[in-house]
Design goal:
Elements (H helix, E strand, L loop, with lengths): L2 E6 L5 H10 L7 E7 L4 E7 L2 H4 L2 H6 L4 E7 L14 E3 L5 E9 L2 H10 L10 H14 L8 H14 L2 E9 L3 E6 L8 E7 L2 E7 L2 H6 L3 E5 L4 E6 L4 E5 L11 H6 L5 E2 L2 E2 H19 L7 E4 L5 H11 L2 E2 L3 E3 L12 H11 E3 L8 E6 L6 H12 L4 E6 L27 H8 L3 E4 L2 H9 L11 H4 L9 H11 L1 H13 L8
Parallel strand pairs: 16-17, 16-20, 20-21, 21-22
Antiparallel strand pairs: 1-4, 1-10, 2-3, 2-4, 5-6, 6-7, 7-8, 8-12, 9-10, 9-11, 12-13, 14-15, 18-19
The chain binds 1-O-pyrophosphono-5-O-phosphono-alpha-D-ribofuranose, glutamine (GLN) and magnesium ion (MG).
Pathway: Purine metabolism; IMP biosynthesis via de novo pathway; N(1)-(5-phospho-D-ribosyl)glycinamide from 5-phospho-alpha-D-ribose 1-diphosphate: step 1/2
Function: Catalyzes the formation of phosphoribosylamine from phosphoribosylpyrophosphate (PRPP) and glutamine.
Family: In the C-terminal section; belongs to the purine/pyrimidine phosphoribosyltransferase family.
């Protein structure tokens, strides 16, 4: 779940893209990059780190031009080396830079095709480099000398035929303009909007609508599954469906945790979906535990707050902010290694003892994934003097790996995998555990847009919307990306110098 941005403007885009990336920082904390073009050359700066650390003033001054793309990264393929930071660049045809959110599930097959048939060289293990090269190869097939929107739509159509998995992408084509496209299942979110200025219309494509809001853009709509948006450097916009078949199945985990609450994804307010998650969870507690003895509802900041506040109000129980979050520490879940995740929970969250002392507390989180947060938080609540510690999750148990852009590659790392609710209660050390029901989670989103019938909900169900995810694939993924195995490769990686993909 990286963050992507693309802009074509009537004025320099460097600061706007930087600002949009800071608003999307919650989608990736490992690396950041911006490429701009003045119509003649492209200028790229990318490195590991947060947006505020990657771009110094002298970099910003050199990112000139009125069009560009940006990226914040949370790796799901390859490693976390700076050579795999995005955007990626290829010089032929035209010169293209691409930012990608998602993960390709047929990366190995594509890698082979790119080498054997397309004669293209890949220099990293990043699936984004693969996506870019497939797009570039398909764009090369155009017969016309002068690039036209039609050629780009054809190339995106071919990308859809060749690539499997989740992908939302923004690409900058040198001397031409910006392209945004989304996979035929619409797994990852991407939205576009416009801003009227005295000089003309500016356009922005971004992972989440909150980036449009922050920069004063008006949301036009989501890029639909399989669709592509082309914006030329002189501000002409073209939109076309490029896939033969689409099956809209947005990632339901965006609504649970990934996206900001102030974003609108596929016409559903994330905030309202989370409020409904709280309501339905409260209904379940009232149904199954009518004589509960909860004294106070306490959210685990930040993401669970929206659901928790509504849950407390439905239960008619006090809502209290019992944990204070250190605002200078980022999201734990998207940190790259388990050691780092475990250490950061206590540094990040500190209890206010008097909200716990002698009380039966219901701690609410949006989800329990590896159990890193819940285990430690329950311990902290007991240390703070709580009498009983109950735990509620606004999402059902996370039991299966994700293969579409969330870094959950290994089932065995998931605390709920292969365990009953009673066992999980014991592992995390709670006195009682209540999970949202799957149907209620889906309803919490669908009420916002009844056209949404199907979701990418594999982390809860083990059902994958692309038909290519076999047990062998999952086994390979676990071997390559499980925390323990990755650590060993990370050490090796530091000893090897890769070509930094610079424009
Ligand atoms: O079971 P786990 O593996 O611990 O993962 C789940 C936790 O991780 C996330 O919080 P995070 O700190 O990433 O971000 P937040 O501040 O947005 O809640 C999520 O909100 C849960 O609290
Ligand atoms: N989280 C993502 O969207 C990751 C994008 C891409 N697969 C990478 O690893 O860089
Ligand atoms: Mg959290």
């Amino acid at each position: 779940m990286c963050g992507i941005v693309g802009m074509v403007s009537t004025s320099p885009v460097n600061q706007d893209i930087y600002d949009a990336l800071t608003v999307l920082q919650h989608r990736g904390q490992d690396a950041a990059g911006i490429v701009t073009t003045d119509g003649r050359r492209m200028y790229l700066r990318k490195a590991n780190g947060l947006v505020r650390d990657v771009f110094r003033t002298d970099h910003m001054l050199r990112l000139v031009g009125n069009a560009g793309v940006g990226h914040v990264r949370y790796p799901t393929a390859g490693l976390d080396s700076s050579a795999e930071a995005q955007p990626f660049y290829v010089n032929t045809p035209y010169g293209i830079c691409l930012s990608h959110n998602g993960n390709l599930t047929n990366a190995d097959q594509l890698k082979d095709e790119l080498y054997r048939s397309d004669r293209r060289h890949l220099n990293t293990d990043s699936d984004t480099e693969i996506l870019l090269n497939v797009f570039a190869h398909e764009l090369m097939q155009s017969e016309s000398l002068q690039l036209a929107p039609e050629d780009i739509f054809e190339a995106v159509g071919a990308v859809h035929r060749r690539c499997r998995g989740g992908y939302a992408a923004t690409a900058l084509i040198s001397g031409y303009g910006l392209v945004g496209f989304r996979d035929p299942n619409g797994i990852r979110p991407v939205v576009y909007g416009k801003r009227e200025t005295e000089q003309g219309t500016d356009y922005m494509i971004a992972s989440e609508s909150v980036a449009l809001d922050a920069l004063g853009f008006e949301r036009i709509g989501d890029i639909r599954p399989g669709e592509a948006v082309v914006i030329t450097l002189d501000g002409e916009i073209h939109v076309r469906q490029c896939a033969d078949h689409t099956h809209h199945s947005p990632c339901i985990f965006e609504y649970v945790y990934l996206a900001r609450p102030d974003s609108v994804i596929d016409d559903v307010y994330v905030y309202k979906a989370r409020l409904r998650m709280g309501t339905y969870l409260a209904d379940k507690i009232q149904r199954e535990w009518p004589d509960h003895d909860i004294d106070v509802v306490i959210p685990i900041p930040s993401t669970s707050r929206t659901a928790a506040v509504e849950l407390a109000s439905q239960l008619d129980v006090k809502y209290r902010e019992g944990f204070i979050k250190n605002r200078y520490i980022g999201r734990t879940f998207i940190m790259p290694g388990q050691q780092q995740r475990v250490k950061s929970v206590r540094k990040k969250l500190n209890p206010i003892d008097l909200e716990f002392a002698g009380k039966n507390v219901l701690l609410v989180d949006d989800s329990i994934v590896r159990g890193t947060t819940s285990r430690q938080i329950i311990e902290m609540a007991r240390e703070a003097g709580a009498n009983k510690v109950y735990f509620a999750s606004a999402a059902p148990p996370v039991r299966y790996p994700n293969v579409y852009g969330i870094d959950m590659p290994s089932a065995t790392e998931l605390v709920a995998h292969g365990h009953s609710d009673e066992e999980i209660t014991e592992i995390i050390g709670a006195d009682r555990l209540i999970y949202q029901d799957m149907e209620d989670l889906k309803r919490a989103v669908s009420v916002g847009n009844d056209a949404l019938q199907s979701y990418e909900d594999s982390v809860f169900t083990g059902q994958y919307v692309t038909a290519d995810v076999s047990p062998e694939y999952l086994e390979q993924l676990e071997l390559f990306r499980a925390d323990a195995n990755r650590e060993a490769r990370r050490k090796k990686d530091n000893a090897v110098l890769e070509i930094h993909n610079d424009a």
